[in-house]
Amino acid sequence: xxxxxxxxxxxxxxxxxxxxxxxxxxxxxxxxxxxxxxxxxxxxxxxxxxxxxxxxxxxxxxxxxxxxxxxxxxxxxxxxxxxxxxxxxxxxxxxxxxxxxxxxxxxxxxxxxxxxxxxxxxxxxxxxxxxxxxxxxxxxxxxxxxxxxxxxxxxxxxxxxxxxxxxxxxxxxxxxxxxxxxxxxxxxxxxxxxxxxxxxxxxxxxxxxxxxxxxxxxxxxxxxxxxxxxxxxxxxxxxxxxxxxxxxxxxxxxxxxxxxxxxxxxxxxxxxxxxxxxxxxxxxxxxxxxxxxxxxxxxxxxxxxxxxxxxxxxxxxxxxxxxxxxxxxxxxxxxxxxxxxxxxxxxxxxxxxxxxxxxxxxxxxxxxxxxxxxxxxxxxxxxxxxxxxxxxxxxxxxxxxxxxxxxxxxxxxxxxxxxxxxxxxxxxxxxxxxxxxxxxxxxxxxxxxxxxxxxxxxxxxxxxxxxxxxxxxxxxxxxxxxxxxxxxxxxxxxxxxxxxxxxxxxxxxxxxxxxxxxxxxxxxxxxxxxxxxxxxxxxxxxxxxxxxxxxxxxxxxxxxxxxxxxxxxxxxxxxxxxxxxxxxxxxxxxxxxxxxxxxxxxxxxxxxxxxxxxxxxxxxxxxx
Length: 624
What we know:
The chain is an alpha/beta fold. Helices cover 31% and strands 20% of the residues. β4, α1 (99-107) and β5 (116-122) form a beta-alpha-beta unit.
């Protein structure tokens, strides 16, 4: 028998020790296999040749993807994979188990099983509540309290395969996925066809090309990262407490550096402070004075996406707690025990550390990068994300068969300035070369159908007092939220004002300048996942016939506010309309929100119990 479309596991050569040596081939290569005819399939399958090797990482199997009509088993049998859905169902394959994917699964209507076959593929068989990773690294909450098994959420809605997608083949509508190598078993790969693919693989850490980051720092995106930091802190204190440790070595071991002054970096610093102040100071009273926590930030203030009052409050809290802010500084390189920073004057400083956390920047997932190269030229030009339309469909995907949600995706939005002349001509009813306030109102209202980012401006100008009360609270809040200079905008909101063509272009340019991709946050991913589930429930989405979503509402992100814990039971909240809230009350609100936002009731109970345990008994500092 001659196999067709052969590949080795994950495009890798056969490993030493296998009974059958198979060299890497192109998809048109061929190999010889011991065979026994199988007649019950009509699609590609994956077969495996296995040597007498232990089930350890790095040794094991090589697979060949073959057409099922020529599929035959070898001595070790076959690795089964799903056949095509029966009864004309469309197979929906979801990649990932993060915020977007699990929000989609949770909102998925179980009654849709009559139309769709749902399959979830992810190298991680659990969901993690990422906002509480900083609390986990300090032992305030335990890792099992903030994770939930994928199968517990999926239940009877579909099937789950623990595997990492290594390749997406749009022209075949198929993925190639493999069981994770780090599980300790030989890799097991399979090829899974789909009708509709939902890409929710997230982003990866961005080192910005800084030397030493991958080798000497701890990233902070996963449960493993948080557990690693928790263990490292314990190791640093135990080593520093040894009688043979010099003062210089002790100060280095007890120096903790966090790179990144965003919410994650701030919360890690805050949780470490609480751990040291409330627990470790009692266990290591002789050395706790040598502890130093530093936050390195490129900007001149932390929490730069929050209200400036919140940034100032956070800086004050950190100053009182002895947390040093290294502002206006970038990391030049990282060594085994020190990080070199350069400030805006060009001066470099070496900061020793016992542990360094890299909590800044995200980069494109390699799977997304490879997918972009397979889609039609010009459809995918974003440097960090896969580009989608307003319905979250991937640009350039054949038959509209692919959606993308979460950190891996960005919604393409056309700039109104590109249509400035066309809009002006259409709105200038009396053809006098000027737009009156009435004409501007009508223009923005009508144009917001094609340019959603104009909608808020249209609502303001059509309100009863919008045009006349620029000095009022609503107008000031509007100008501030859009980062628009009040003086510039005031000349457009007078009822007697008019705009010529160039002034209109200037206005659109100012509005477009605030147009940016949605932030890579859990809040955005959750809303996208829920929206897509509702889209499947309300629309007949199928790749067997043209899908027209023009009648469906496009995705619209609603910002509900931002929160961050800053230590000493204090938190900050940036809430739309209400404004900044800071202090102990915000701390209670933050704790309650993070508890009740858990994905399951089980997690809610566990997290609430952990808060109480940490307050009553303290944090567990065992090095296990």
